[in-house]
Amino acid sequence: MFYKHSKKGKCCILIVYVDDIILTGDDSSEIVRLKEFLGTKFELKDLGNLKYFLGMEVARSQTGISISQRKYVIDLLSEVSLMGCKPAPTPIEFNLKLGTDKDGEEIDKRRYQRLVGRLIYLSHTRSDIAFRVSVISQYMHAPREKHLEAAYRILRYLKGTPGKGLHFKKIANQNVKVYTDADWAGSVNDRRSTSGY
C-alpha cells in the first residue's frame, strides 16, 4: 500500500508492506500527526531512520544515501553453494550468444526460475546486472545447462562486488542520468535486438 499526502509543496509518504511501514517526507508536522493517528489504531514501534527494508540496506552519509543488497547477495551465494567461487570480472562473457536451441542438457526448471527471480529482485539496486538478468530470464520456460552457466557467471560477478548498489547524491541538481545497454540484432533465434536500462 502506498499513501501520499502533500500540501503547499510539502510531502508525506507512507509505504506499507505486510507489517512493515516506511514513513518519509519533508513535512515533519504531517509525519508526527500521521504517526500519532496510526498509534491510536495500531501498536507501533518507531525504529528511527531506515536501515534495512525487504532485503535492502540503507546507509546515510554526508554525501547522500546509499542502497545496497549486500546481505541478500551473500545469502544467495550461500544458497547456491558459490561462496567459495572465484569472482568473475564481468557479469557475462564477451560475445556470449544464448539461444533456445536443444543443445545442452535440460536442467531443473523450477530451480532455474527461482534463481532468476531472485536475480530480478536484486537488479532493483544493481543496475549493472539488469541487462544480463533480462537476457537469462528469456529462457525460464525451457532452461538448459548453458543458461544456468550464464546465471552462475552473474553470481560469480556478484561475489566480487557484493556491496555495490545505488547512491543518491545530496546535491541541488536534480537531473536524471540514464545509461542504456543494447544488443543490436543479437538474438540467435529471431535476430531481434535486446536493450536494458
UniProtKB/TrEMBL annotation:
Record domain Reverse transcriptase Ty1/copia-type: where: 1-93
Bilayer-spanning residue ranges: none
Any Pfam family the entry gives: RVT_2
InterPro entries per the UniProt record, alphabetical: DNA/RNA_pol_sf, RVT_2
PANTHER family: GAG-POL-RELATED RETROTRANSPOSON, REVERSE TRANSCRIPTASE TY1_COPIA-TYPE DOMAIN-CONTAINING PROTEIN
Protein name: Reverse transcriptase Ty1/copia-type domain-containing protein
Taxonomic lineage from the root: Eukaryota, Viridiplantae, Streptophyta, Embryophyta, Tracheophyta
